Amino acid sequence: MYGQITKFRADIGIGVIVGEDGRKYRFAKAELVNRDGRLVGQGVDFLVDARRPRQIIVMSGSPWAAFGGIVDRAANDRE
């Protein structure tokens, strides 16, 4: 699902995404696949599992910026 981050509190690591369905989803920073500097206002793609967003990908910058961290984590998983 696509959406937009409307709120994020870095001090507690919690934010809110408004999905394309109009619903608000609370998320934890740990669910971000790729962390970018400023999160509020960024478009995201995410999965919804039990009404909670999971595997949130920030859709800004180049594809390498979006998915480069995935490659690093996959390489670490193989070690």
Radius of gyration: 13 Å
Mind summarizing the main beta sheet? Answer: 5 strands, antiparallel
What's the CATH class, please? Mainly Beta
Specify the CATH architecture.
Beta Barrel
How many separate structural domains? 1
Task: Look up the CATH topology.
Answer: OB fold (Dihydrolipoamide Acetyltransferase, E2P)
- What is the spatial order of strands in the main beta sheet? 3-2-1-4-5
Oligomer: single chain
Global geometry? globular
Overall mean pLDDT score? 82
The percent of residues in helical segments reads 10-25%
Report the portion of residues in β strands.
35-45%
Structural class: alpha+beta
Order of helices and strands: EEEEEH
The CATH superfamily is known as Nucleic acid-binding proteins
Give the termini distance in whole angstroms.
32 Å
Poorly predicted regions: none
Describe the structure.
- The protein is an alpha+beta fold and about 80 residues long.
- It has a single domain, classed as Nucleic acid-binding proteins (OB fold (Dihydrolipoamide Acetyltransferase, E2P), Beta Barrel).
- It is built from one helix and five strands.
- The chain has a five-stranded antiparallel sheet with strand order 3-2-1-4-5, with no helix packed on it.
- A hairpin with a 4-residue loop joins strand 1 (about 1-10) and strand 2.
- The protein starts with a strand and ends with a helix.
- The model has no long low-confidence stretch (mean pLDDT about 80).
